């Protein structure tokens, strides 16, 4: 028996009627990871002829759900159905055989091969369809879905939009019945996104079911026939075609914002920290722009000022330029425009080390590969950004005793749980690595600390401790720029919150304690909508 759609299927009549309809369904599925319920008792049916949009904040469970449909993981509880039959998708090839193709956010193509080679990749050489057959089929796809691809072009030389078309073409050549597009528009131009939206409609008209994951509300409304919202793993709400048709775009967006970002009635909101902001400006950024990378968004025309003792939060769905902004401030990413001032001094052209010495510190979200060298002892990691500098190096000679003492002090001050300072940092837990990195950034005369997702991936106790430390840092008079995808965290800690979307700042709001209304206002901007001051809970 093939590993696919476990042929241990039940007959349609064995299943409740609501499970029969639709090409694919998940029924009461739950998936747990250590410390988190990623998907919590979710039931959904994906129908032929429909673009079904999945929405939800970072961490809501969308990828985990898609992982179940694409055979990357199986549910701990609940089951899947295909055409009304109970089914198992135990591997990616089982999912493909069942007619489900997934186009992931990051291209799965081989950039050095041609379009034709990529289209036939994976098929054993003796089964590869001849070029003439593919060319003929591509002509059909061009007519039907406006998929126009130069078969002999090398994939790496094509635009991201064209590369995505290859993946869609590959799914169609396989006769897929379900096409999953995971954040497929995030790196496309508005024009490219619109073309994809139109193409999705053509695809569903030809009988496919499309599952479309996006973070942008306008796209969800314009291109979706049905919208489901996930929140903390559970299904927060679903809007079917009739309901959507009866709503204006504005009404639909308001409802989705409420489902995505609203709080359940009766949920206690987190208490806001008392502001410790002073008058003096410690960091000023004006008109800052940076280039992105191949599939990373750049930053456009960002201006903000940070006062001593102030925490300015930066909200946004992951990947909207936040990391690039932090890197540009830290001097790790070149600017194409704008300038940066630290306590009135222009540091636009200063190197990473110079900025650090002047007191501008940066805590990366990538603790293990960018922030530390995991095989090196904690001691070496505490001076990683001070190599060659006194007091740890004197006239080019390393002072191991001095470094070890510095590391022992840091371990004691930040309560790092480790046998001793010689333990490789990679052996510590996430929370303890974070403490070492924070200790490193705060040593010497720090004036401004830029945090990128400081509590991401930590357990609850370490999250609390980290937030308290951030609050203490501001209280000591340092300026803090706090980048986070967690709105609760930002609302609990920040004086003001800047919202980034599409590499730009959509708006900067005072965290004035207006709770739910402010939450929805920020959520709207995160999802690509204009600021809407009147948003009501
Ligand atoms: N392999 C894993 N191991 C541990 N935890 C995981 C794993 N995969 C996901 N999680 C956790 O499960 C939760 C749901 O994650 P998931 O990636 O499904 O969310 P998402 O809605 O796709 O988010 P995003 O928009 O950021 O991609 C998160 O808390 C995440 O940290």
TrEMBL record:
UniProt-listed PROSITE patterns: ABC_TRANSPORTER_1 (PS00211), ABC_TRANSPORTER_2 (PS50893)
Annotated ranges, domain ABC transporter: 24-257, 283-527
Keywords, in A-Z order: ATP-binding, Nucleotide-binding
InterPro entries reported for this sequence: AAA+_ATPase, ABC_carbohydrate_import_ATPase, ABC_transporter-like_ATP-bd, ABC_transporter-like_CS, P-loop_NTPase
Claim: Transferase is one of the keywords in the record: no
Similarity annotation: Belongs to the ABC transporter superfamily.
Stated name of the protein: ABC transporter, ATP-binding protein
Species of provenance: Nitratireductor basaltis
Lineage of the species this protein comes from: Bacteria, Pseudomonadati, Pseudomonadota, Alphaproteobacteria, Hyphomicrobiales
């Amino acid at each position: 028996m093939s590993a696919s759609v476990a042929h241990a299927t039940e007959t349609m009549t064995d299943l409740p009627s609501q499970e029969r309809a639709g090409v694919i369904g998940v029924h009461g599925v739950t998936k747990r990871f250590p410390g988190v319920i990623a998907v919590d008792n979710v039931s959904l049916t994906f129908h032929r002829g429909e673009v079904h949009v999945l929405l939800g904040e970072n961490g809501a469970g969308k990828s985990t759900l898609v992982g179940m449909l694409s055979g990357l993981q199986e549910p701990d509880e609940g089951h899947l159905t295909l055409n009304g039959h109970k089914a198992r998708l135990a591997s990616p090839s089982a999912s493909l055989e069942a007619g489900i193709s997934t186009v992931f956010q990051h291209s799965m193509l081989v950039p050095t091969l041609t379009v034709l080679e990529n289209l036939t990749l994976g098929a054993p050489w003796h089964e590869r369809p001849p070029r003439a057959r593919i060319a003929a089929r591509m002509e059909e796809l061009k007519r039907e879905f406006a998929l126009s691809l130069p078969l002999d072009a090398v994939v790496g030389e094509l635009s991201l939009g064209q590369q995505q078309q290859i993946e869609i073409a590959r799914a169609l050549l396989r006769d897929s019945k379900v096409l999953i597009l995971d954040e497929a528009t995030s790196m496309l131009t508005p024009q490219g996104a619109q073309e994809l939206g139109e193409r999705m409609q053509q695809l569903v008209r030809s009988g496919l079911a499309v599952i479309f994951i996006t973070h942008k509300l306008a796209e969800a409304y314009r291109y979706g026939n049905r919208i489901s919202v996930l929140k903390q793993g559970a299904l927060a709400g679903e809007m079917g075609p009739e309901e959507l048709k009866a709503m204006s775009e504005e009404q639909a967006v308001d409802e989705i914002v409420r489902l995505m970002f609203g709080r359940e009635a009766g949920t206690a909101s987190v208490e806001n920290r008392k502001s410790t902001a002073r008058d003096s400006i410690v960091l000023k950024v004006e008109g800052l722009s940076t280039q992105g990378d191949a599939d990373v968004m750049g930053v456009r025309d960002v201006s903000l000022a940070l006062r001593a003792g102030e925490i300015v939060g930066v909200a946004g769905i992951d990947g909207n330029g936040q990391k690039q902004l932090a890197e540009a401030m830290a001097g790790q990413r070149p600017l194409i425009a704008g300038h940066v001032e630290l306590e009135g001094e222009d540091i636009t052209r200063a190197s990473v080390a110079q900025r650090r010495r002047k007191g501008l510190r940066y805590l990366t979200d990538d603790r293990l590969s960018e922030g530390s060298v995991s095989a090196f002892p904690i001691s070496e990691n505490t001076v990683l950004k001070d190599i060659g500098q006194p007091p740890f190096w004197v006239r080019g000679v390393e002072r191991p005793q001095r470094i070890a003492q510095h590391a022992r002090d840091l371990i004691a001050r930040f309560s790092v749980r480790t046998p001793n300072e010689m333990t490789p940092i990679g052996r510590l837990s996430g929370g303890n690595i974070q403490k070492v990195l924070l200790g490193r950034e705060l040593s010497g005369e720090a004036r401004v600390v830029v945090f990128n997702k400081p509590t991401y991936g930590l357990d609850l106790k370490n999250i609390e401790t980290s937030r308290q430390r951030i609050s203490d840092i501001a209280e000591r008079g340092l300026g803090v720029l706090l980048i986070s995808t967690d709105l609760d965290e930002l609302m609990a800690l920040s004086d003001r919150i800047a919202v980034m979307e599409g590499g730009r700042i959509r708006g900067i709001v005072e965290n004035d304690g207006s709770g739910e209304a402010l939450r929805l206002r920020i959520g709207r901007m995160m999802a690509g909508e204009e600021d809407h001051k009147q948003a009501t809970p």
